[in-house]
Amino acid sequence: MTLGGITTVAKQEFRVRLRTGRWRWLLASWFAVIAAFAVLLRIGLLVLDEEHVRPGVPLFGGVMLFVLGLSLLVAPALTAQSINGDRERGTLATVQVTRLSAGEIAVGKLAAAWGTALVFLALTLPFVVWAIIEGGVGLLRAGAVVLIVALLMGVVCAVAQALSALFARGITATLMSYLLVFALTVGTLISFGLAASLTVTEEQRTYQIERTDENGNVLPGPPVTETYQEQVPHPELVWWLLAPNPFVILADSAPEPPVRYNRITERMEPETSMDPLSSIGYLVRESRQPTRDYASFGPVPEAPAARAVWPWGLGFQVLLGAGSVWISARRLRTPVRGLTKGVRIA
After folding, report:
1. pTM for this entry
2. Gap between the Cα atoms of 27 and 118, Å rounded
3. CA-to-CA distance for 156 and 67, rounded, in angstroms?
4. CA distance 17 to 118
5. What are the two backbone dihedrals, phi and then psi, of residue 97, each rounded to the nearest 5 degrees?
6. What is the pLDDT of residues 233-292, one digit of tens each?
7. In terms of residue numbers, what domain contains 122?
8. What is the DSSP letter of 303?
9. pLDDT in tens, 36-55
10. Does residue 28 sit within a domain?
11. Same domain for 146 and 210
């Protein structure tokens, strides 16, 4: 596999996509939808006390989560018919009989689709700059979040292309691609919720209650100690079900916002108030923490440091993308020993 071969296939794919003539309308629609969302969100943030919460923080987080959601809808459509569509039109065999290897064809097609997806993502940069101007968002945080979105888009494109190589019909590959996206987003949340309910255990809790009279006054003497059984969930046993979720990866991997003086705590702290990325990341990291007994009698042990979830999720996504490219290349090897019934060669 050579860079020249990959570039040749990618250029050809770009030419084919540009000939359709619909990309300008698609790009304009993408920009208009994100612009409408960003403007409506900013109007909704006018009620904020800007001395306490700078609007750039929730604006950036909301826009990037929205962009990721749109990307998961657009990316499968870019590659779900890239291989079986060429096979149906009889143009794939023309490429396969050249000196290009199966790996070059697979990676070149993916590069073209991913490059197209990055063009869509580039149209969101004006809104990222807008959030930075509004305040509360640093260049490091903005760059890291955009980079993660770009990587997740590439993984979805790779998976959809692998499904395009596995299934003979384009409509089947497209439906399976969206089904997989649903499984990675909504499916992981449902699985985590169901699995967490199965981790509930009966544990003994001890409470110390002060004695009071009928008027609520504390009576002298030692407090009353009560012990009873309580149902306690243990999400730390099933947190890994949330790791592959793209929204979890994006939120948990986002660097903390710049620090700012908090008038309530009177300390310099990261500006995480009203930040959807920080809120999701905090909840996800809390799911890895062992359940603490805050109400038991005696001192409460110090909680361990919160551990990140995104490295595991991002690692899973990278492996999923790499495996998808391998499947695509394997299905493009020639000579073909067997074909699905009804599939044409040229």
Report:
1. 0.83
2. 11
3. 14
4. 14
5. -85, -5
6. 888 888 899 999 999 999 988 887 766 655 555 565 566 667 888 888 888 888 888 766
7. 3-194+309-331
8. P
9. 999 998 888 887 666 666 78
10. yes
11. no
